[in-house]
Each structure stands twice: as structure tokens, then as C-alpha cells.
């Protein structure tokens, strides 16, 4: 491996590195432009832009005849500011409050001290080793704070890209800690400059290319993962009430049925009475407020593990895993009385709303019986709801659901 590193040409690698950085920044820009309001993405994009400018000063100083001190100072300051920008982006992405006011003082003083030391070890007492240790320490600190901020994603099994990003940041932290402690323990001296064509600088550049792309892939991956999750949530949610819609409800009910097929399962179909009268007399906005009012009240009586949804029109559905006929009737009566007890605040007054509820319950007759499909059980509940409406509204109606016993062997 060492012989291979000796034969690699550093200027060629620098050219490849520059092309890859342009490509990486282009991919990030394509993701950022249509999602500029997405928290964190702007900080990550800006951080990468500033870091690339810093690398341009450091690696391009000889080709562009930039004075040494100017190139080193400008490049390393850009690296410090760029990594701090990515840290702010991570805080924004995780919706953690940024330091504000006096809380900015420690970070500001830390950056000022780092820049003052950078000036000292570049202009007053030039030392490549000291600059490596300084930049490594700053980057390690910013990376560690990012890992801490992203740690909730590591613990969430629904964020595989979050885990990937934490791993990449962990590798970055290990690399920079290694660069900080290397001068104290390594018998091989560091090169005098990062542009010397030797195996050490080639390894550093190759590692920079790999981990820069891994980090960029991680940042873009968690952003896409978050956007997809949000789109899925919007597809599953009713925008008026914030509850699940019919499709999501049937999926949830089916998954609840699969978890336990040995106990009863009930579904309530709930519909406000005379909602059309409110729409006709007070307007559609008042009708929407009435629906939201009913949704809020129903949410207060749902048990842990239940699934409540707005399944269309004015109808709500509530899945009750483990609830038999008696329990379902009891909960339905609580819901009916609660909605009747608390009028909906509409305009300057209030409107008393009543609801009719249809109930369908499946009870396993013998071991081995499979529950009916969720849509079939909901249909039975809606048939019971129609009967409650026919009998005068503001009441309950129950519809048992039986399945045939499986054939005996």
C-alpha cells in the first residue's frame, strides 16, 4: 500500500479532488434550491461552500501564486467558519435552538481564540504541525457537537440515513483526533507542507475525498429521508382535522388486527348530526370548525393503541383493538355524551352538536379464527351508523360481525 501511495501523483489527485468537490457541491445545490426553507439544509450547503473556498486557498496557492500567509490564513479560517456553519445547520435540522445573545459568547470567543492562534502559527511563529493540531481540534469539537445533536436519530430505527450520518461523523471525529495526537506519538515526522508530493499527503487527500463524499451523502440522505417522511405524513393525514385519512386508517386497523388475533376488535363509525344545516346556515367555515371541534373531543377519549381518523365527509372512524361489544358500546356512549355536552364555539356564539355512532365488533368464536378485513368491519360499522341515523340520530347502533369456523381436518 505504501508503494502504491508513493506512485500516486499528488497534482493529479488534486485535480480529481477539485472535480469531485464541484460535482458534490452541484448535487447539494440541486437539492437545496427547491428546498431552501428546509431547516438545516442551507447551513450544510453554506458550510460546504465555505469549506471548498478554504480548500481552494490551501491547495491552489502555488498554481495561482497566492502569497503563503494569505492562502494559509484565508483557507484555514474558511475551514473553521465552514465547519461551524455545518454545526448550525445540524442544530437547525434537528430543530434545536441555536445559541442566541450572550449564549453566542463562548462560541464567538472560541472562534476568536482559534483564529488568533492560527495567525500566530502562520505569521509570527510558522508551524505546520501546530496548524494541523489546531484545525484538527476545532473540527473535532464541531463534529462531536454534531454527533450529540444527531444522536436521537441514531436511536430511532426509522432513520437509517441518520445512523449512516452519525457513523460518518464518528469516522471524521476519529480521523481528526488522530491528526491531533499523531505529532506526539508518531516517530515519522509530518511533511513541512501539505503540497509535498509524498505518501502521507496522498493518504490525507484520499481520506479527505472519501469522507467528504460520505458526509455529503449523509447530509443529503437525511434531508431526502425527512422530505419523504413528510410527504408520507401529508398523504396519510386529513388536512382539515390533522387526523389520519381513510387509507391510513385502514392500514393502521389492519396492522392492529395482525398484532393480536385472539381478542375482540371493534370499529366505531361516527358522524355529526345535521352538519349540512350548519354549512347552509352558517357557512362552510363554520362547518369545518364544527368538524375540528368534534375531532378534538374524540381525540381526548382515545386509548393508547387506538386509531382515530377522519374517513371522509363528516365521518370519523375509531379502531378499538381488544374491545368487545360491551367495551365498544361504553366508549361510544362516552363519546356521544361528551360531544353533546360541549358545544362547538362558532363565530361569536356556540352550536350544540350531536353525533350518531355505528359499532361493529368482531369476536373470535374459536381459536384459529381470522379477523375480517378492516374495510369489511368498517362497512359493518357504517351500516350500523345508517340505522342510528334512521332511528332519529344522537344514538348508538351495534352490528356484530361473525366469521365461519375454519373447516376441521
Folded structure, characterized:
- This protein is an alpha+beta fold.
- It folds into two domains: 2-236, Rhopdopsin 7-helix transmembrane proteins (Up-down Bundle); 246-401, Reverse transcriptase/Diguanylate cyclase domain (Alpha-Beta Plaits, 2-Layer Sandwich).
- Helices cover 63% and strands 10% of the residues.
- Strands 2-3-1-6-7 form a five-stranded mixed beta sheet, with helices on both faces. Strands 4-5 form a two-stranded antiparallel sheet.
- Strand 2 (307-312) and strand 3 (315-321) form a beta hairpin.
- It starts with a helix and ends in an 8-residue tail after the last strand.
- Mean pLDDT is 84; it is low at 402-409.
Residues in helices, as a percent range: 55-70%
How many structural domains does the protein architecture include? 2
Structural class: alpha+beta
Strand arrangement across the biggest beta sheet? 2-3-1-6-7
Regarding CATH, which class of the largest domain?
Mainly Alpha
Calculate the terminal CA-CA distance, rounded to whole Å. Answer: 68 Å
Order of H and E elements: HHHHHHHHHEHHEEHEEEHE
Q: Which stretches are poorly predicted, pLDDT < 50 over at least 5 residues?
A: 402-409
In the CATH hierarchy, the architecture of the largest domain is: Up-down Bundle
Shape: elongated
What Rg is obtained from the alpha carbons, in whole angstroms?
32 Å
Tell me the total number of β-strands: 7
Per DSSP, the total helix count is 13
Mean residue pLDDT: 84
CATH topology of the largest domain: Rhopdopsin 7-helix transmembrane proteins
**Beta-strand residue fraction:** 5-15%
Major β-sheet profile:
5 strands, mixed
